[in-house]
Design a protein that fits this description.
The structure holds 2 protein chains of 2 kinds. By secondary structure, chain A is of the alpha/beta class. Chain A has helices spanning 36-51, 70-79, 97-114, 134-142, 195-201, 222-225, 252-262, and strands spanning 2-6, 9-11, 32-34, 58-64, 83-87, 119-123, 146-150, 152-156, 159-165, 170-176, 179-183, 206-209. Chain A has a single domain (2-225), classed as HUPs (Rossmann fold, 3-Layer(aba) Sandwich). In chain A, strand 9 and strand 10 (170-176) form a beta hairpin. The longest helix of chain A is centred in the middle third of the chain and has 18 residues, at 97-114. In chain B, the strands form 3 sheets. A 4-stranded mixed β-sheet of chain B has the order 1-4-5-8. Chain B has a 4-stranded antiparallel β-sheet with strand order 2-3-7-6, with no helix packed on it. Chain B has a two-stranded antiparallel ribbon with strand order 9-10. The chains are: A alpha/beta, B alpha+beta. The structure holds flavin-adenine dinucleotide (2 copies). One flavin-adenine dinucleotide is lined by residues 6-8, 25, 35, 37-38, 41, 62-65, 95-98, 100, 104, 122-123, 125-126, 129-135, 228, 230 of chain A.
């Protein structure tokens, strides 16, 4: 089985996050890492291979992003993925979901031209922009069925059965390869790379492709070609001093309720 | 504040980053509770094993990580900065693999070493006895040859991981002290699996600290050990045990350095927040100097430990420097942790803050793997011997 896991490089959420002057996320001047939510996808791919011992399962980590984004691929390789593909091209900067999904789809087609791809896996959302739409867009572009937001993944042969936990109901959804599968953070903690995994990753194949390698024109992507653009961003206002409610005359409960209502919590 | 580290290779730098992440995410959050409830964190050792952190200083060909001591000890220090018991345990595990890795036959190594270094098994090292700690040559546990086996009888005291380990590296007498020539002869080394019949653990010691590390007496009640599990020659055991300790005490020096760093970090954070007489207590010179001395003590311990490690890695004699490192790092850890309690004032004396625990943990570092009196004895003897031999001061380039 040939699996492609889409891994996004995102700014470290524990550090300061910045926007560029054109309101795109600053991905170059900050510390970044493999999106935590995509670690779950890598983990599920690795577990799939472990569960289906004896089958020849190859896992390729695919990332679209600036030069530093190779760190996201490297992390996936250290965890146990076999190969990496990094699409990097200045023209991609500022791409929205539609444009990003085009690049991912074309890269996936090129990977598939060498060896048929059975399964495309993604996280449930990126941790920086968190649109959650890339999996659906990929499925549309690749003309594949999509099974999304899986919290439990089981498979037998070509059939994948997942649990999808919604707010009001839990669904069991079944799909057949080839398909696109996105997994949630409920699928189980991702492993740490091992020291030997870190060393082995250095020797794993890693390809770097430009847009021309995957047959995408520069004017199909980037900020100018995107259907949407972020108009402005505003930092969350700093936390204000808390409000202290006293209950000397028995009005405390009412004051609390009024406060909650004013903040639209109730 | 984690220490600035300069590492010899890229892979070592990545290793240290991985260790910091695991320490921060998995060790630090669990330490206080496990120490409070005296629970041995086997799952933490499983995790370290899976990350290939339990065989780091041994050759890759044997299943280890192929890292020099200079790197391995910095890993231990990072672990020790968050959780002494796990740092000590990691060091003791390496100590218990030493005999087989350095004195075993290729057949023995092939058979047992990969599992031991691979991290799925945990080891223990049995040298001390109730009446024979500083003077292990006085040990009484016997190993009597019977056909293809040895039969072990006696008790080993103070065994770290006693009752929790999967294998025990055991020193026992194969001949009487009177008939075995020079002092320390007549002792041999055995690799005993935990499930050997007749092997049992007493109840764990009720210690002052390091409660997350089980310490127990192991009883050998006619334990049959096949002769193929004897490591090294008959009579070579004490030499093996002492050689292991030369390296082992470097591990303790590193853990003690980490412990002191952890205590200093806690004290520093507190001193920057707490106010007295209208200003932060760090701004009172008398208190600021306590922190400055602590920082100097931590950095001195680290420098000495890494100096000894680099001698070892270069294949030069390092026994004296290992003793100095153990002495300096553990005495400094005692001082720094005691001062950390002082910096936190009354709060430092409560169990709501970790520094009183650090202080209790530091004490044992001055005691095990050779008390600090014994370290001084080794240093003095080595000075005396060195003077006999003439100058042993070498100047060498890396890699020579
Ligand atoms: C504040 C803000 C608002 C935005 N609003 C919009 C908007 O309204 N409309 C719009 O179209 N775009 C918008 N974008 C841009 C868009 O979110 C991203 O630029 C786009 O590249 C991918 O969307 P995502 O990160 O939300 O992916 P998601 O759909 O959240 O990601 C799902 C999965 O797709 C995979 N994936 C996503 N990106 C990559 C990648 N580069 N490489 C490899 N795998 C990947 C990962 O597996 C990930 O888990 C916005 C961005 C920001 C910062
Ligand atoms: C928590 C813990 C874990 C341990 N783990 C292990 C383990 O895994 N394996 C193992 O084999 N052992 C282990 N030990 C044992 C440890 O190594 C001994 O306790 C130590 O070597 C001291 O021996 P002792 O307790 O018998 O003290 P003694 O040897 O009785 O010493 C008592 C005092 O006399 C001093 N003294 C002794 N001889 C001299 C001298 N010649 N000159 C000056 N002063 C001297 C000592 O410094 C000490 O202060 C552990 C001990 C502890 C507390």
């Amino acid at each position: 089985m040939n699996i492609v896991v889409c891994v996004k490089y995102v700014p470290d959420a524990t550090a300061d996050r910045q926007f560029e002057s054109d309101n795109t996320v600053d991905r170059v001047g900050v510390d970044g890492l493999l999106s935590e939510l995509d670690e779950y996808a890598v983990e599920q791919a690795l577990q799939l291979r472990e569960k289906r011992e004896g089958e020849d399962i190859e896992i390729t980590a695919l990332c679209v992003g600036p030069e530093k984004a190779v760190d996201a691929i490297r992390k996936a390789l250290q965890m146990g993925a076999d190969k990496g593909v990094h699409v990097v091209d200045d023209a991609i900067a500022g791409s929205d979901s539609v444009a990003t999904s085009l690049v991912l789809a074309k890269a996936r087609e090129k990977i598939g031209a060498e060896k048929k791809v059975d399964l495309v896996m993604t996280g449930m959302a990126s941790t920086d922009a968190s649109m959650s739409v890339i999996p659906a867009m990929l499925a549309e572009r690749l003309e594949l069925p999509q099974v999304t937001f899986a919290s439990v993944v089981e498979s037998q042969g070509e059939v994948f059965r997942v649990r999808r936990d919604g707010d009001t109901a839990t669904e069991i959804v079944e799909g057949r390869l080839p398909m696109v599968l996105s997994v949630t953070d409920q699928t189980g903690e991702a492993r740490y790379p091992s020291f030997k995994g870190i060393m082995a990753a250095k020797k794993k194949p890693l390809e770097t492709w430009a847009l021309s390698d995957i047959g995408v024109e520069a004017d199909q992507v980037g900020l100018s070609a995107s259907w949407t653009a972020v108009e402005g961003t505003e930092a969350r206002p700093p936390r204000t001093q808390g409000e202290i409610v006293t209950d000397e005359d028995g009005s405390g409960a009412t004051a609390l309720v009024d406060f909650l209502a004013s903040k639209k919590f109730i | 504040m984690p220490a600035t580290r300069v590492l010899p290779t890229d892979e070592a730098a990545e290793l240290l980053r991985l260790v910091r992440q695991i320490v921060r995410e998995q060790l630090a959050p669990r330490a206080a509770e496990a120490e409070e409830t005296a629970s041995f964190p086997r799952e933490v050792f499983t995790l370290l094993g899976e990350a290939d952190l339990l065989g780091l200083p041994y050759p890759e060909a044997q299943g280890g990580g192929g890292q020099p001591y200079e790197v391995y000890l910095q890993v231990l220090e990072e672990i020790g900065s968050a959780w002494s018991s796990v740092g000590v345990g990691t060091s003791v595990h390496a100590l218990s693999c030493f005999a087989l890795a350095n004195y075993g036959t290729p057949e023995q190594q092939e058979r047992w070493l990969p599992e031991m270094l691979g991290g799925s098994l945990l080891g223990a090292y049995c040298l001390s006895e109730a009446h024979a700690g500083s003077d292990p040559a006085a040990m009484r546990t016997k190993a009597v040859r019977d056909g293809d086996d040895y039969v072990l009888t006696g008790a080993k005291a103070w065994v770290t991981h006693g009752g929790e380990a999967d294998f025990y590296t055991v020193m026992a007498r194969t001949s009487d002290p009177s008939s075995s020539g020079p002092k320390g002869g007549g002792i041999s080394c055995f690799l005993v699996p935990a499930d050997a019949e007749g092997l049992s653990a007493d109840a764990a010691e009720r210690k002052m600290g390091l409660m997350g590390s089980t310490t127990a007496t192991m009883r050998f009640d006619g334990v049959r050990v096949p002769a193929e599990r004897r490591i090294g020659e008959e009579g070579q055991g004490l030499r093996i045990a002492l050689a292991a300790l030369d390296s082992g005490r470097l591990g303790i020096a590193a853990v003690a350095t980490g412990l002191a760093q952890g205590a200093l970090d806690a004290a520093l954070a507190y001193a920057r927040e707490r106010e007295a007489f209208g200003k932060r207590i760090i701004d009172h010179q008398g208190l600021g100097f306590v922190l400055a001395d602590a920082e100097a003590a931590v950095q001195t311990a680290r420098a000495m430990t890494l100096h000894a490690a680099r001698l070892k890695d270069a294949g030069l004699p390092f026994s004296r420097e290992a003793s100095i490192a153990k002495l300096v790092a553990t005495d400094n850890a005692m001082k720094v942790t005691t001062d950390a309690v002082q910096v936190l004032g009354g709060y430092g004396y409560t169990r709501d803050f970790p520094v009183e625990r650090y202080m209790r943990e530091a004490k044992v570092m001055q005691i095990f793997e050779g008390t600090n009196q014994i370290q001084r004895m080794i240093i003095a003897r080595s000075l005396d011997k060195g003077a006999d031999a003439g100058s042993d001061a070498e100047i060498r380039a890396y890699g020579d």
